[in-house]
Amino acid sequence: MEGKAGTIHSDVYQAYSDNLRKAVGGVFRSDDYGDKYFELQAQLQANVTRFAAYKAYHLTEQLKKKREEWPNDDDFKNIAKAMMNTFNRYQAAEYNTATARARTAKQWNDFNADPIANELYPNLRWLPSRSANPREEHQAFYWLVLPKNDDFWKQNQPGNLWNCKCDWEETDAPIDTKELKADDLAKARSEGGGIHANGLEGNPAVTGEIFTQGCTYFKNVSRTKAKKLEHYAGDKLLRKESIRNLHGFQGKNPIKIDKMGEEIEVTFDSKTTSHISNDIANSENFLWNEITSNIQEVLKNGTLVAHEPNAKQDKKMWAVEYFYYKCEIAGNTFYLSVEENNNLFESRHFYRLYSITKNLRPTAIPY
Predict the structure, then answer these.
(1) Same structural domain for residues 30 and 101?
(2) How far apart are CA 247 and CA 28, in angstroms?
(3) How many C-alpha atoms does 330 have within 13 Å on its Cβ side?
(4) Counted domains in the chain
(5) SS3 call for 217
(6) Cα–Cα distance list, 136 to 128, 133, 195 (Å)
(7) Are 254 and 152 part of one and the same domain?
(8) Which residues contact 80 (CB under 8 A, 6 or more apart)?
(9) How far apart are CA 148 and CA 108, in angstroms?
(10) Which residues form the domain of 327?
(11) 102 with 96: CB under 8 angstroms?
């Protein structure tokens, strides 16, 4: 009401983000590290979180403009409610589409996971929409049968139209292009071709995206503004979530990891939470935030690649050395640093998780 929402109204963002994350999570059921779908789900969750931030930004901006135009409280309330209702109607379609695209991504992984099944069922068949009033766009694909490795499936999948209720299945049935003309099939196979809504391009299992850059919320923001927006989202919004996740590890039993053949115990404390939440806030990579709820397992599976003696031991006598563990999630590489401490004031030696970085420091010494 006061027009002081900032870049993104946090309550609006949280509502949209929670809703879309629920859509993705409802398909995969488990977000446990090591689950066969973990990396794919992490990518998709990061994507819908980013989408929610952009959507909240667009709504916040429109509400602020309307507030300037309508200073009277009652007038503004009516206009704001109407605008919120419009965005909420969009949200229903976005939720359904996120569910469908997440399901498609999961199915694609399952379709290609078993070599024996691929021999028995080498093709995919497009199944008709379950909608009472199916749209025409995908009807040309009904009962189409093509090999799993056909380029057609890179551009066309059930769920790549808003509220699409088509499906597909594995089959040993012979290839059948139905009545699709050769030119139309070639166009559907071409990069950027196929039948899809703007913002729903590509195979989500391959791209790791539910909503692509072709989406209106992403497309209508300048590159400069987008960079500021994503930093803001990290600093003001994602940081809260990462702190909440990291707090859950404080005070628990240390995690045991390998340090050049030596087993060490790494603790998580308030300094860990502070450093890593700041690192995530300063990053534009929404995927980083997904690791905080599984950070113990991520660290345990990391590879020790470098170390760095603390250059400020004269000022900070208890920090002796830093060890960098290389971690990868969904093709994204980052490093978790572990701090070795020799606290002379408390006469104790211990290790703690210290920070997360995209690149190794120039002063780090590779093993």
Answers:
(1) yes
(2) 25
(3) 26
(4) 2
(5) helix
(6) 11, 9, 11
(7) no
(8) 63, 66, 67
(9) 9
(10) 223-366
(11) no
Q: What is the pLDDT along the chain (367 residues), one digit of tens a residue?
A: 665 667 888 889 999 999 999 999 999 987 778 889 999 999 999 999 999 999 999 999 898 888 889 888 899 999 999 999 999 999 999 999 999 999 999 999 999 999 999 999 999 999 999 887 888 889 989 999 999 999 999 999 999 999 999 999 999 999 999 888 889 899 999 988 888 999 999 999 999 999 999 999 999 898 888 988 888 888 888 888 888 888 888 878 899 999 999 999 999 988 899 999 888 887 778 888 888 888 899 999 999 999 999 877 555 557 889 999 999 888 889 999 999 988 666 667 889 999 999 999 999 999 9
Long-range contacts of 342-349 (CB under 8 A, 24+ apart): 342/317, 342/318, 343/318, 344/317, 344/318, 345/318
CA distance 337 to 271: 13
Examine the fold and report which residue of 219, 245, 262 is the final residue of a domain before the chain moves on: 219
Amino acid, res. 258: D
Region at 302 (left for phi over 0; alpha for psi -120 to 50; beta for the rest): beta
CA atoms of 303 and 223, how far apart (whole Å): 35
Give yes or no: residues 14 and 100 share one domain. Answer: yes
- Asked if residue 88 lies in contact with residue 135, where contact means CB atoms within 8 angstroms, the answer is no
In a 3-state reduction of DSSP, which class is residue 109? Answer: helix
Tokens of 122: 């080498």
